[in-house]
Amino acid sequence: MPANSSENRPQAAPLAGLRVLSLESRRAEEMARLISSYGGEAVAAPSMKEVPLSSHVEALNFVRAALEDGFDVAIFLTGVGTRMLARVAATVCPVEEFAAALRHAAIVARGPKPAAALKELGVPVNLLVPEPNTWKDLLRVLDENAAAVPIKGRRVAVQEYGASNAELLAGLTGRGARVTRVPLYEWTLPDDVAPLRAAAKSLARGEIDLALFTTSVQVIHLLRVAAEMNLESEVRAAFTRIVVGSIGPVTSEALKEHGLPVDFEPEHPKMGFLVNEAARVAPELLMRKRSV
Predict the structure, then answer these.
(1) Domain boundary residue among 187, 210, 225?
(2) Per DSSP, what are the bridge partners of residue 49?
(3) Is residue 79 in some structural domain?
């Protein structure tokens, strides 16, 4: 247990005395500032890099098929992927022409980020998947709106995010959809893995009090690096003694699938809510976990 007990922490700094591991990459500095604002010591270990696929064959095929009215339904899973698809389309035709082609299909957006990207293109969204935006929520929304947006026997394109979601694809296929994957980018380890390696060592030595996960890929990459360092068993053991925060159900599923605990999720799957919830519950949870 850290030297400062929860009773001695100032109310404005509930994370004072706690070392908080953040695996965030694109928004690493913002996450560190949030942690520091609650008095925590941020241990930043960017865990992934978004890398365009070397070949955009599937995306280009999707664009050409869309121009020929080749799809009935298009499902957009991420804002980043939607914008990248528009850039790929621009190598084939004017973006306005691609957007016009998309308007012939029923559009499904998994949450506000792809919806915002589609709005930038001037493409209306027929179905918006509400929080927490999991693949189960997406399938539920499709089931509830089967009359308005049928998928049985229809040509359904799925813009993927990093790795394929086998459960989502199986769910669509099981409902009779003719599914086409549209992969646009993949996640790799960052160019500089030193911070991630240092984080694995810190976990193994018991120097971390709280770990915050904002995407499932962070789980995979942390365990991968730990295994490469022959520290996987020590890192896994460390998670029984620290508090683990997950941004939402998708990330929580990944943690549980890899045998790691989930101690809390925020009310909304956003970074600010995650750190705020950590400040509210982590000190007491940590005390409980380390008193066992």
Answers:
(1) 187
(2) 188
(3) yes
Distance CA 276, CA 265 (A): 11
| Residue 109 β-bridge partners | 76, 128
Do 285 and 221 sit in the same domain of this protein?
yes
Q: Each residue of 35-93: pLDDT tens digit?
A: 999 999 999 999 999 877 666 889 999 999 999 988 999 999 999 899 999 999 999 99
Number of neighbours of residue 228 by Cβ within 10 angstroms: 13
Q: Are residues 32 and 62 in the same domain?
A: no
Distance of alpha carbon 249 from alpha carbon 18, whole angstroms: 25
Query: Which own/partner contact pairs does 264-271 have at CB distance under 8 Å and 24+ positions apart?
Result: 268/131, 269/131, 269/132, 269/133, 271/24, 271/27, 271/30, 271/31, 271/34, 271/214, 271/247
Strand 73-76 and strand 106-109: the pairing is: parallel
Matching residue, tokens 């199986």: 170
Tens digits of residue pLDDT in 13-48: 999 999 999 999 999 999 999 999 999 999 999 999
Residue 1 lies in a domain: no
- Count of domains for the chain: 2
Which of 164, 187, 210 is the endpoint of a domain? Answer: 187
For 154-186, letters b (16+ CB in 10 Å) and e give: bbbbbbbbbeebeebbebbeebebbbbebbbbb
The domain in which residue 12 lies consists of 6-48+189-291
Name beta bridge partners: 21: 43, 211
- pTM tops 0.85, yes or no: no
